C-alpha cells in the first residue's frame, strides 16, 4: 500500500520565467539509470543536462560489480544463453508475485532487451555475459545466472579528465588509496562508457558539485528545478521533463530512523556524500506518492573499526551465530536473503545484537569469504571486532555467548559437514550456495570448524542502498497518490519504489531496472512511447 512521506513542502510554484539555464531534459544524478536516461534523451536530439551533487560521476553504480539483469538481450545471446522476456517473467512473477504492479514488472521485462540493443548501438557501450546465479529456485531461473556485465574499458580510450571524474572503487575510497591505474572495470566501466556515449551525441552537458534542492512546478506540472552549484542557486528550466535518478536515502540517518527503524546510516555501502533522499523529498513536495520506504537491497556486512561496514558475500567457510551462540540461517544464502534473515532474527540489526562469523584456523589470516573492502586483521583485533582463541570455550567467553551453546552449535554443524547435509538450514543445496564453495566432499559448502585457533568476526546488517521511493508507472512517470502522473516528472533507480518490491530476484536487478526505466523516461520525453 502506498504511503505518503511526511516531508516539508519544498516545491516552488512559479508564474515568472527567470531561468539561469535551460535544457530539454534535466537528469538528476549520474548512476546507471541517470546516464542511460541522459544518453537516451541526448541520442534522440534532446538538449540534456546532467547534474551530480558530488565531486564524481557514478554514485553507488560506480562501486558495483555491475551485473545487469536485462533478460533476453543480445549480449546474452552472444554468450550462448537463450533467455527471453517470457522466461524471465515466469521467474519474476514466481519470486516477486503481486508485491508490485504487473504493468511495472512487464515494462521492465519487455524493454530490457531493447535497452541493451539501443545502448550497444553506440560504439562506446558493450556488454558480455558472465555466470552469477539467480537468487531463487523458481521456474524460469538460470542456475548460472543471466546477468550481463559492461566490458572493461581501457583507461586511455576516453579523455582522461572524464575517466578521472568517475568515482573510484569502494575499497580505494574507503581506505583512502589512489585510484587504480589500468582499465576501468565493472561499475566504473559502465559509468565511463555511458558518459562517453552521452558526450558523443553532442547534445549532453554534465556538471559536478551541483545538487537538486527543489522542483519548480507550474499548473501541477514540473517545468524545472532549483540546484545549488558551489554556493550559487540555479533555476534550471527543463522543457521536456526532469528525470530523478539520484539514488535512495541510504546516507540519511534521520530518514532511515524514521522510515526504516534502523539505528542510522553507518552501515550502508552507498557511495558517500550523495544519496540523502533529496530527490524523493523534492518529489513528494511536488505531490509524488511513495512506497516501500522500509526496503533496502540488504547484505551482511563486516563491521569496521571506524564504525562503517562493508558488503560481505560468497562465504566459503564458517558459520554465523547470533548472541545466543546459535545459527539462524543458511550462511550461503544470496546476500539480500541473508539480510532479511538477519532482520527476522533481529541479528546484527543494531549494536546490541551482534552476529559473529565463526571459523577455524585453516584459513590462516584470511577471511573465508569476499569483502569488498579488505580487513586489516591487526586493526580489527584491536577494535574487538576480530576475536581469536585456542578453544571454542575461550572464544565464547570473549564473545559473551553461552559456551555450551556455541560448542553444541559447532558440533552439530560438524556433523552436518560429515554427512554432507545441513538438516537445519539446507546449506549447499542450491546452485547459488555452491557457486562460491571451496570445500571438499559431498557438500563443499559445509566446511567443519575443528582446527584451532578459532576466530570470530563481527557481522552487521548492511545494504547496497535503499529501494523505496516515489511511485512510478510503466513510462517511469512519477505518480500522485490518486495514480495520476505528474507531468514533466520521471524517476528511476533507487529514487523510485523498486519494481521488485521486497525482493532481490537476481544479480543486476538494481542497476538493470534503473537503466530500463531511465531509458523509458527518455523515450517518453522524446514523445516516442505512444503512451
Ligand atoms: C559493492 C557493490 C556492488 C554492487 N553490485 C551490483 C551489481 O552487480 N548489480 C546491480 O544491479 N547492483 C549492484 N549494486 C547495487 C547498485 O550499485 C545500486 O543499487 C545502484 O547503483 C543504485 O543506482 P542509483 O542510480 O539509484 O544510485 P547511484 O548509482 O548511487 O547514483 C545516484 C547519484 O545521484 C547523486 N545525487 C544524490 N542526490 C543528488 C542531488 N540532490 N542532486 C544531484 N545529484 C544527486 C549521488 O551523488 C549519486 O552520484 C552494488 C552495490 C555495491 C555497493
From TrEMBL:
Keywords annotated in UniProt = FAD, Flavoprotein, Oxidoreductase
**InterPro entries given for it?**
FAD-dep_OxRdtase_2_FAD-bd, FAD-oxidoreductase_2, FAD/NAD-bd_sf, Succ_DH/fumarate_Rdtase_cat_sf
Q: Which residues form the FAD-dependent oxidoreductase 2 FAD-binding domain?
A: 24-510
Extract the SUPFAM superfamilies matched here: FAD/NAD(P)-binding domain, Succinate dehydrogenase/fumarate reductase flavoprotein, catalytic domain
| Name of the molecule in the record | FAD-dependent oxidoreductase
- Please report a single Pfam family linked to this protein: FAD_binding_2
Q: Which organism is it from?
A: Streptomyces cavernicola
Q: What is the lineage of its organism?
A: Bacteria, Bacillati, Actinomycetota, Actinomycetes, Kitasatosporales
* Protein's UniProt keywords contain DNA damage: no
**Cofactor(s) the protein requires to work:** FAD
